[in-house]
Specification:
CATH topology: Ferritin
CATH class: Mainly Alpha
Radius of gyration: 16 Å
InterPro entries: DUF305_CopM-like (IPR005183), Ferritin-like (IPR012347)
Pfam family, one: DUF305
Mean pLDDT: 80
Protein name: DUF305 domain-containing protein
Oligomer: single chain
Low-confidence stretches: 1-38
Organism: Lentzea pudingi
Length: 198
Amino acid sequence: MKRLVIAVAVLALAGCGGEAVVPEGQGAHGHGASSAAPPVPAASARFNDADVTFVQMMVDHLQLGISLSQVGLAKATGKEAKDLAGAIDVTQREELTMLKSWLKLWGKPEGDGANLHAAHGGQPLLDDKVINETKEKSGPEFDALFLNLMTGHQGAGVEMALDEKKDGMNPETTAYADRVVKTRQGQIEQMLKIISGP
């Protein structure tokens, strides 16, 4: 599994240097998060089906990422893994609030994330069962599992965002997709470095 997840992450990283996942001064609990990224404007009313599907899928994706990051905050033993969990938790909570507001503006439901993933060729790498199973691990074993799962999860986010950049029309949504690609690739790169060790 480790090799598979890393391979997916490497493909997602191809051709891009990415960004650091933990902004300077932001620790495991998200201190300094307010300065991590500029506020994203409310989405305009001009959108297509690709925009709606992307936002609905990302709502489910972000909720799962938040659940895993919460377990990481509680159980990670390595400082880098715990800091990553904290940064991801803060960022994805902000994004989740924003995306839900866009769907409300558009008059669209949040949708059924699992069915949306299935309709687009697969299931998410994470679900509640997988996340609960991570709680049975501890120490370095937990850290390695957490980082591998989060690497694959963020790689899936990159794939969804690339589709939105290609097919979407809402300017705020496509700008958000671009941000997802850059930030998640940075996170993947950082996690791969931690997994591979010094």
